[in-house]
Design brief:
Oligomer: single chain
Radius of gyration: 24 Å
Strand order of the largest sheet: 1-10-9-4-3-2
Largest sheet: 6 strands, antiparallel
Bound molecules: flavin-adenine dinucleotide, FE2/S2 (inorganic) cluster
Length: 505
């Protein structure tokens, strides 16, 4: 016998009084054994799926912003009318239902057919051939958006990676910890590229860009011509240069292959030394603890992540990892590796696995050699166009004029890369949309998610609301009396509100 799912709230096919639905609010119910979220916004009522298409976040706990609902976990937003994922990291729409009014009752009717996305390009805006260099966050999001808005000419995506575009943040989190299967990692399966006519060429390294003849050259000697080019080559990990760093047990983590190699090595290892106490290093530490390895973290910092999140969050992160058995060796660096990692402090830690998470460098070679303007990244304008017309850049390589801080900034965040890829695609197609979204990133450590909105390389004041150690806080980083960035733990709604405020100031 088919088991009935236990569903929250009222049966919405039978109807609920309009008064039960908060104005500018949400109510979870169900229809035909499926959960449905009723949303009232500006006097209109909508019915959508309550589950975010990114990682299933609860939209009912999110924020209504105009005619969109934003997910509390990683700030994706969905159009209430069409279900379209209008802000990454979600890329797929949520299901929408018909809403019927009879008397004072609101009833949910049948599922609606998928409607067109709200943005469609003018048929006149038609480059013949878009070439995207890079098959990561920005490159994939650009290709997907170009097709979503109706671009029908050629898209070629050239990626030096041999795997189809995948969810890179998962490589240091659940995938590395072994708590999700591989199926969760690719952003789309092979069929998506075939159905959408995206000519994806994997294992293709672009070695040169000729702006005069408008073509890129591959390492196999072939050339690919473009009308519009998107550079989205991302970043590469900085490697240790100390004696012994070239040994096979010493890893870095950027690609799926890197993550797989660490997983393989972890199966026969007992003790790992993670070099670096920043996001990737500490996520690796947490994931390898889940695989029951003894984990040591070595870093020159006084506190983990203090330079990004301040001392209070740094102390919290250290305590959290120590509670899970991680052993820190701070204010020192490794100086040599053999069967042990030898530290400048004089300590030696026997280790069968070493993972270096000591930062990344943007891959700028193509842009530099083609003499595009470089400013500690590829310099782009607010439309994400480089100094050479018809060449755009997005993601980890791009330094753009950030409208909130008024500075030219470059960040290494998944959501920013996706949103920039999408914005670049729109501008490639002639939309002339300014990229004004405030940076957002998240990081996950055991059960504690850290969300961060804005950008503060420095600050003159930190204001803490709530209690960091109890995992319930909002931390404001202020510069010249203004909030430059907000970090939070389990204050999702406030984090979303901070994003909205920063974008509208
Ligand atoms: C393990 C890990 C975990 C992360 N977790 C988070 C997180 O939790 N939250 C967060 O906000 N950010 C996270 N990040 C950062 C985030 O993944 C990056 O900011 C994002 O991937 C940048 O996107 P991108 O498109 O610029 O570059 P990438 O995603 O790195 O893609 C670059 C692509 O370009 C290709 N390429 C490079 N050079 C060439 C060339 N010459 N020719 C052809 N192809 C080329 C590469 O193969 C790759 O496909 C994480 C990063 C890593 C490595
Ligand atoms: S789960 Fe909704 S944005 Fe990630």
């Amino acid at each position: 016998m088919k088991e009935e799912k236990k569903l929250a709230g009222p049966d919405l096919s039978k109807g609920v009084p309009l008064d039960d639905l908060p104005s500018e609010g949400m109510l979870t119910g169900h229809v035909d054994n499926e959960e449905v979220l009723l949303v009232q916004s500006r006097g209109e009522v909508f019915a959508i799926s309550p589950h975010c298409t990114h990682y299933n976040g609860p939209l009912a706990e999110g924020l209504l912003v105009g005619d969109t609902v934003c997910c509390p976990w990683h700030h994706a937003c969905f159009d209430l009318r069409t279900g379209e994922a209008v802000r990454a990291p979600a890329l797929s729409p949520v299901t929408c239902w018909e809403v019927l009014r009879s008397g004072g009752l609101i009833k949910v009717g049948p599922k609606r057919k998928r409607s067109q996305p709200r943005t469609r390009i003018e048929p006149t805006a038609k480059p013949e051939r878009i070439v995207i260099v890079g098959g990561g966050a920005a490159g994939f999001a650009a290709a997907e958006m170009a097709r979503r808005v109706g671009y029908q000419n050629s898209i070629a995506m050239l990626s030096s990676d041999t795997a189809l575009p995948y969810d890179r943040p998962n490589l240091s989190k659940d995938y590395l910890a072994g708590t999700i299967p591989f199926d969760y990692v690719p952003l789309r399966d092979k069929g998506f590229y075939e159905e959408n006519g995206i000519e994806i060429q994997l294992g293709k390294n672009v070695v040169a860009l000729d702006v005069r003849t408008r073509e890129v050259r591959l390492s196999d000697g072939k050339s690919v011509a473009y009308d519009r080019l998107l550079l989205a080559t991302g970043a590469e990990p900085v490697r240790l240069t100390i004696p012994g760093a070239e040994q096979p047990q010493v890893h870095t983590l950027r690609s799926l292959a890197d993550s797989n190699a660490i997983i393989e090595a972890s199966k026969t290892s007992k003790r790992v030394v993670v070099v670096g106490a920043s996001f990737i290093g500490l996520e690796v530490a947490a994931s390898l603890r889940a695989r029951k390895l003894e984990v040591h973290v070595v870093a020159p910092d006084k506190r983990p992540m203090e330079h990004i999140l301040g001392p209070e969050m740094g102390d919290f992160i250290r305590t959290l990892h120590e509670e899970h058995g991680v052993i820190f060796h701070l204010e020192t660096k490794p100086k040599a590796i053999d069967k042990a990692v030898h530290l400048e402090s004089g300590e030696a830690i026997d280790a069968d696995l070493v993972v270096a998470g000591i930062g990344v460098r943007p891959r700028l070679g193509l842009a530099e050699n083609a003499e595009l303007k470089i400013d500690r990244g590829v310099a782009v304008d607010q439309y994400l166009e480089t100094s050479t017309p018809n060449i755009f850049a997005a993601g980890d390589i791009a330094r753009w004029p950030d409208s909130h801080s008024g500075e030219n900034i470059r960040v290494e965040h998944w959501v920013v890369a996706e949103r920039q890829g999408q914005a670049a695609a729109m501008n490639i197609l002639g939309a002339r949309e300014r990229f004004t979204q405030v940076p957002f990133f998240w990081s996950q450590h055991y059960d504690a998610p850290i969300n961060y909105v804005g950008h503060a390389e420095t600050w003159d004041k930190i204001e803490i609301e709530g209690d960091v150690m109890s995992k319930d806080c909002l931390v404001r980083f202020k510069r010249n009396g203004r909030v430059a960035a907000v970090a939070s733990i389990f204050r999702d709604l406030q984090s979303l509100q901070a994003e909205v405020e920063m974008e509208h100031v």
